[in-house]
């Protein structure tokens, strides 16, 4: 065992004792049963939609219990940090209304909320473990570690740094001192308990009683001494931080279940009260006949920015995620589901499927319930970042935008549901705006030509329709203008009549109305023609029809 003076010399002379930090971060004064949860994003990558899913559950269970929800940036692996990741965290949390009670932005009594700023805290506890011989200095080189792994594999033994394979676990203090005197870099390893035959048992808040083989490895708890800042590994940092921040419920992905045994050992060695874990199943994707985890590398929809850039309404995505967490919430109306509690006991152990078709349907249903003013405001907010041209048009034509949004929505028993996300506004409603409308180029425009009507007839229909056009309020009377022009130019009264003798007619009333529809909307599929005409106004209707006479 190393002499205490040797151990203490490895650390700053003014480093506080663990008791200092225990006093600095006392037990929280919260109601009985209050839950303190945390979400720990790492800037080594962008937030996965699964992170938003987890954070949604974190926030909900904490707030409803009268507890606290905090966000702690876990940036101990600074060599792998991705530029812009921290900004994406804040962007995603803000978009999905996941404002923490405590984080790097808002602060709090238990900060700093960034692990790289907590170096002195970790060092105090590492030093204490070394003093108690619950940890040791390890000078093994990369080559030595690789050789150990190779020999273990050759003899079909479990790989790792443990027992007799841990070459510095019981080293002579004189050998350790010699290495220190030579300035050799070292890591600090946790001295795993010797009772490696024991089983680790715990009760998961979602899965119930679980057990696994106890950890046998002497895991690294403090990284190499030749690095600065001197930061711990995730295992150690989370144990210290969760204890001092007084977290009592950790909700995390089920890939961490295998780490519970080492976390139990660390909590015990540090003298901390164990905390409750809830391991949630990962979000999945259907691929052919099988399912796999939703992947940031393979699946665009795994990224939080995918939903922001597409312009999915926040409420629709949150409703969908809450339904994945607790199936009963998916059966409730959106507004009710967003106020109902998420129950950990109702979270499944099989990963729920992310289905964008289902999300599109949910989003379309939600948007159909919004007022035109609410939709316009949301589209403007989205366009401020992603479509400056559209923003300029909406700012120039707000009344036209509201008239367009009212078509087949205001007062309709079954309002239109063709807008699923804000990025689709241009495609769905763009034709209403002269600045965005792709006007026909004449009677031979390919969209008109696809109807199979002679260009000369198209021009004649357009001229006559425009010559007698009236901006009538009654939809039936308005459409009679198309019927009259169609009859004048020999169009069949209906498709059945046209089908009987196609050579006798230039087309049916359908083709005649589609000539007008394409001129007004640019497509053969659009809302009610009369409603479009009312939104556009007489002058714009006539200007668009005139384009057919060229």
Question: What's the β-strand tally?
Answer: 11
Query: What would you call the shape?
Result: elongated
Mean pLDDT: 94
User: What is the chains' assembly state?
Assistant: single chain
User: Distance between termini?
Assistant: 96 Å
Task: Figure out the total of helices.
Answer: 25
Relative helix content: 40-55%
Strand order, main sheet: write it out: 3-4-7
Radius of gyration: 33 Å
Low-pLDDT residue spans: none
Q: Helix/strand/pairing class, anyone?
A: mainly alpha
Percent range for β-strand residues: 5-15%
Tell me about this structure:
With 550 residues, the chain is mostly helical. It is 44% helix and 9% strand. It is built from 25 helices and eleven strands. Strand 5 (199-204) and strand 6 (208-213) form a beta hairpin. The protein is elongated and about 110 Å long.
Considering the chains and any ligands shown, give keywords for the structure.
two-stranded parallel ribbon, 11 strands, 44% helix, elongated, 550 residues, single chain, 25 helices, mainly alpha, three-stranded antiparallel beta sheet
Task: List the SSEs and their pairings.
Blueprint: H1 4-8, H2 18-24, E1 36-39, H3 49-64, E2 68-71, H4 85-95, H5 119-131, E3 135-138, H6 142-154, H7 173-181, E4 187-190, E5 199-204, E6 208-213, E7 220-222, H8 234-244, E8 249-253, H9 260-270, E9 276-280, E10 284-287, E11 290-293, H10 304-310, H11 314-325, H12 327-330, H13 334-337, H14 356-368, H15 372-386, H16 388-396, H17 398-406, H18 425-429, H19 446-449, H20 455-467, H21 475-488, H22 495-500, H23 509-521, H24 529-536, H25 538-546
Helix pairs in contact: 8-9, 11-14, 15-16, 15-17, 21-23
């Amino acid at each position: 065992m190393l002499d205490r003076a040797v151990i203490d010399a490895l650390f700053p002379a003014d480093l506080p004792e663990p008791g200092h930090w225990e006093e600095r971060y006392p037990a929280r004064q919260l109601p009985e049963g209050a839950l303190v949860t945390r979400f720990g994003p790492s800037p080594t990558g962008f937030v996965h939609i699964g992170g938003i899913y987890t954070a949604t559950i974190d926030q909900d269970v904490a707030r409803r219990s009268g507890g606290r929800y905090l966000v702690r940036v876990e940036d101990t692996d600074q060599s792998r940090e991705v530029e812009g990741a921290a900004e994406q965290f804040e962007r995603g949390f803000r978009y999905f209304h996941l404002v923490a009670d405590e984080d790097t932005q808002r602060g709090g009594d238990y900060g700093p909320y960034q692990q790289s700023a907590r170096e002195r805290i970790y060092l105090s506890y590492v030093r204490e473990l070394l003093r108690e011989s619950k940890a040791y200095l390890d000078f093994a080189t990369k080559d030595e570690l690789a050789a150990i792994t190779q020999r273990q594999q050759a003899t079909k033994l479990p790989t790792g740094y443990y027992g007799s394979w841990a070459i510095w676990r019981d080293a002579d203090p004189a050998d350790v001192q010699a290495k220190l005197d030579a300035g050799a870099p070292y890591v600090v390893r946790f001295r795993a308990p010797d009772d490696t035959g024991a089983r680790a048992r715990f009760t998961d808040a979602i899965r119930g009683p679980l057990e696994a083989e106890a950890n046998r490895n002497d895991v690294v708890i403090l990284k190499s001494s030749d690095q600065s800042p001197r930061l711990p590994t995730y295992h150690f940092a989370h144990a210290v931080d969760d204890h001092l921040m007084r977290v009592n419920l950790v909700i995390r992905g089920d890939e961490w279940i295998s780490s519970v045994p080492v976390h139990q050992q660390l909590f015990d060695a540090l003298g901390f009260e164990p905390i409750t874990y809830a391991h949630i199943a990962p979000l999945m994707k259907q691929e052919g006949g099988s399912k796999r985890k939703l992947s940031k590398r393979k699946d665009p929809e795994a990224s939080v920015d995918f939903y922001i850039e597409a312009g999915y309404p926040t409420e629709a995505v949150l409703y969908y995620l809450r339904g994945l967490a607790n199936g009963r919430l998916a059966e409730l109306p959106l507004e009710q589901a967003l106020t109902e509690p998420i129950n950990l006991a109702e979270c499944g152990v099989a990963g729920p499927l992310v289905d964008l078709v289902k999300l599109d349907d949910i989003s379309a249903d939600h948007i159909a319930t919004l007022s035109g003013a609410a939709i316009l405001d949301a589209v403007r907010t989205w366009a401020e970042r992603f479509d400056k041209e559209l923003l300029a048009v909406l700012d120039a034509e707000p009344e036209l935008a509201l008239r367009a949004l009212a078509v087949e929505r205001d007062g309709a028993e079954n309002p239109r549901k063709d807008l699923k996300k804000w990025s689709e506004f241009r495609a769905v409603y763009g034709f209403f705006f002269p600045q965005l409308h792709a006007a026909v180029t004449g009677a031979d425009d390919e969209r008109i030509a696809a109807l199979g009507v002679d260009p000369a007839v198209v021009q004649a229909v357009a001229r006559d329709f425009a010559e007698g056009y009236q901006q009538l309020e009654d939809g039936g009377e308005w459409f009679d203008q198309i019927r009259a022009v169609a009859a004048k130019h020999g169009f069949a009264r209906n498709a059945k009549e046209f089908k009987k003798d196609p050579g006798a007619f230039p087309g049916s009333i359908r083709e005649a109305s589609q000539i007008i529809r394409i001129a007004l909307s640019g497509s053969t599929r659009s809302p009610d023609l009369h409603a479009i005409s009312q939104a556009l106004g007489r002058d714009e209707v006539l200007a668009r029809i005139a384009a057919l006479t060229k």
